[in-house]
Specification:
With 113 residues, the chain is mostly helical. It is 57% helix and 0% strand.
Length: 113
């Protein structure tokens, strides 16, 4: 079970949720997988792309849209297919659950509501 920063366990999600994920969310999950597999930190990924750590953090949280040119640069820099960066599988469900839990927490604490 994946934990969110508050220490609470994220609720499990149904595999059917994968169909409805936005492209920024799919990219966030794919980049998170790449980051884990390579043992890299957001700062390192940002440096490799020539973007700020803040920008990379937003992309990793699914909070930022990415230009096609940036997506192409990611694929070339890290020698991966764009498709693999946007593919989310059942194995990614714990990360999807954590992403959605963080977003729900952020929305519930938003003073604009």
């Amino acid at each position: 079970m994946v934990r969110v920063k508050s220490g609470k366990t994220a609720e499990p999600v149904s595999p059917s949720i994968l169909v409805d994920l936005s492209l920024p969310d799919r990219l966030a999950i794919g980049l998170g997988r790449l980051k884990r597999n390579r043992g890299a930190r957001a700062k390192e990924l940002a440096g490799q792309l020539g973007v700020t750590e803040a920008y990379m953090s937003q992309v990793l949280r699914g909070m930022r849209d990415v230009k096609l040119s940036t997506l192409d640069r990611m694929a070339r820099e890290w020698n991966v297919d764009i498709e693999s960066l946007l593919t989310v599988t059942d194995a990614d469900l714990p990360q999807v659950s954590a992403l959605l839990a963080r977003r729900k927490k952020a929305e519930s604490s938003d003073p604009a509501d």
